[in-house]
Specification:
- This protein is of the alpha/beta class and 316 residues long.
- It has 2 domains: 201 residues, NAD(P)-binding Rossmann-like Domain (Rossmann fold, 3-Layer(aba) Sandwich), CATH 3.40.50.720; 90 residues, Alpha-Beta Complex (UDP-galactose 4-epimerase, domain 1), CATH 3.90.25.
- Helix content is 36%, strand content 19%.
- It is built from 9 helices and 14 strands.
- It has a 7-stranded parallel sheet, sandwiched between helices.
- Helix 4 links the parallel strand 5 and strand 6.
- Helix 3 packs parallel to helix 4, helix 5 packs across helix 7 and helix 7 runs parallel beside helix 9.
- It is globular.
- It starts with a strand and ends with a helix.
Length: 316
């Protein structure tokens, strides 16, 4: 098979590329390198199984060329920022919704790919009243523009798959962590502590509690679900089976950086202690549907955080 991975030079995308090539697949990566890096694909440099295309999903001609001859597509390219000061509504509309539309149009016109895997987000559930939250939970009321953009893009994926005859698998993902990560709470804490090893500012009241999934567990689940799904449109939650709060993450990061005497300063946050507007304070997904196919994460949330902090501290 030839598999296209959009955003394949990014954090999760590059780990997925590793996994697919190790399984014997030929992989084409489409990435504009705005958030990814060729160094993430360095182990495959010169390997004929990897084809790298520097291109942008906002350019329809480049997208049509990229999908040609591919049997399956993993669509990971997106703007992942929930925080409004790092990404505007226009950023999310163009990079998450319009980009997905361009990819779907290319698949409709070319018609080669038999399946599309799309990485959505737990944020589509908004402030879910039921934890762990199953895929059937409704109504879906995201509280961030990022969550809304992922919900809209997922709706487009479902509709195009239903109308134009390819299978789609939509993953609603917990917080994915691991080496090569340049985004998220662990990365942010480490950057702050490198600037000032005596104090760590924590946004919110510290009780925010969420599920964290190690990237190796994530890509294994993604590939298994894509192979085993037997419906035209399938939705899977993917995450760990527990959660960890921000105070604990701060403690783990401090320990793994080998620091002591660090003052943890809580900002108090907004709207009941969340870190920022649009921040879902409590999140844990019900992963029974994917686990019933034979997948389970090796690491729990705290273990995934600790392993990630350890590897990032070593320069991973």
């Amino acid at each position: 098979m030839r598999v296209l991975v959009t955003g394949g030079a990014g954090f999760i995308g590059s780990h997925l590329v590793d996994h697919l090539i190790e399984r014997g697949e030929d992989v084409r990566v489409l990435d504009n390198l705005s958030g990814g890096s060729l160094s993430n694909l360095g182990r495959w440099r010169g390997d004929p199984r990897l084809e790298f295309v520097q291109g942008d999903l906002l350019n329809p001609a480049e997208v049509e060329a990229a999908v040609e001859g591919c049997d399956a597509v993993y669509h990971l390219a997106a703007n992942p920022e929930v925080r409004t000061w790092r990404a505007s509504p226009e950023d999310h509309f163009r990079q998450n919704i319009e980009a997905t539309y361009n990819l779907l149009e290319a698949l409709r016109k070319r018609g080669d790919a038999e399946s599309l895997v799309f990485t959505s987000s737990s944020t589509v559930y908004g402030e879910a009243a039921l934890l762990p939250t199953p895929e059937e939970y409704a109504p879906l009321k995201p509280i961030s523009i990022y969550g809304a953009s992922k919900l809209a893009a997922g709706g487009l994926v479902s509709a195009y798959a239903s109308m134009y005859g390819f299978r789609s698998v939509i993953y609603r993902m917990a917080n994915v962590v691991g080496p090569r990560s340049g985004h998220g709470v662990i990365h942010d804490f480490m950057e702050k502590l490198r600037r000032n090893p005596r104090e760590l500012e924590v946004l919110g009241d510290g009780t925010q509690s969420k599920s964290y999934l190690y990237v190796g567990d994530c890509v294994e689940g993604m590939v298994l679900g894509a192979e085993e799904a037997d419906k035209p449109v399938e939705v899977f939650n993917i995450g760990s089976e527990d959660r960890v709060n921000v105070r604990t993450i701060a403690r783990i990061v401090i320990e793994e950086m080998g620091l002591s005497g660090v003052e943890v300063r809580l900002t108090g946050g907004v709207e009941g202690g969340r870190g920022w507007k649009g921040d879902v304070k409590l999140m844990q997904l019900d992963t029974f549907r994917l686990r019933s196919l034979g997948w389970s994460p090796r690491l729990g949330s705290a273990e995934a955080v600790r392993e990630t902090a350890r590897e990032l501290a070593r320069g991973g």
